[in-house]
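Hi there,

I know you've been waiting on this one. I reran it after we fixed the sequence typo, so this is the corrected version. Both the input and the resulting structure follow.
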Amino acid sequence: METIPQITAGEGATLVRSGDVLIVGGFGMTGSPVHLLNALAETGTRELTYVGNNVGEPGLGGGRLLRNGQIRKAIGSFFTSNPEVVRAAHSGEIEVELLPQGTLAEAIRAGGAGIGGFFTPTGAGTRLAEGKESRLIDGREMVLASPIRGDVALVRAWKADTAGNLVYRMTESNFNQAAATAATLVIAEAEQVVPVGELDPNSIHTPGCYVDYLVQARVRPEDLGSSVSVSADHKRVDDSRMAMARVALARSSQRVRSFDPVLAH
C-alpha cells in the first residue's frame, strides 16, 4: 500500500501558491487545520481565495492570513465569528461571497463529486439569489448553486494512517470530509499518525486516495480560541428572543398534536 509523504506544517504551507483557491475545513476553530494555516501566515503567499465556513478567529488560523492581507476573497457562511472579517468586507479590503451554510457544504461536496451544479430553495427570492439562474421545480422556486473546487484543501483529522486514510473525531468532521475530495492537492494535519492496519476500515471517513501529504500536529487549548471555552457559550439570551422561542415551541407542539391522533386526544 502506498505511503503518503509526511511533512512539516511549514513544508505544507510552501505548497500553496499566490492566487490559489484554498478550501479549509473546520467549523469555528473546531476541526480547523490551524497549524497549516498559521504556517501559511509565515509565507509571502498572497491573493488567496479562502473557502470555508468562517475565517478563523482574530489572529488564529485563517484570521492570521486576514491580518496579513493574504486573502483577496472569502467564500463562506459565518463570517461574523471573526469581527475583523466583517470590518475588512465593509471597508473593501476583501471581497466576500456569502452562501447559506447548507449550500456551501453541498457546493463543496458537488465539487468533489464532479457535479455541475444543483438547484436549492435556500436563498430563493432574496439578495443571495440576485444574478443567479432560478427555476420553478415542483411548485417551488429554486436557485442554481455552482460547485466549488479548490487548488489546495487544508483539512484536520483526529487520526491518520501512513497511507493517508483519515478518521475525524465527532463534530470535527464538519466541512473537512467534503473539502478533502474537492481540491487538486490535499494536505491533512492529524493529531495522530499510525501504521497501516491500526485503523478500523469501517471507521475511515476519508480514503487515502484523496490525500497527498500528511502533517502530524497536536492541538493545544490556545490553538482553538473560543471553541475551547465552555463559559463563552453561557450567554444570557435577551427576553425578546426567549419570548420568540417560547412562541415557536408552542406552535410546533400544536402542529405535532394536530398530526398525531394519539397526542390529539
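Quick highlight: The chain has a mean pLDDT of 90.

Best,
R. S.
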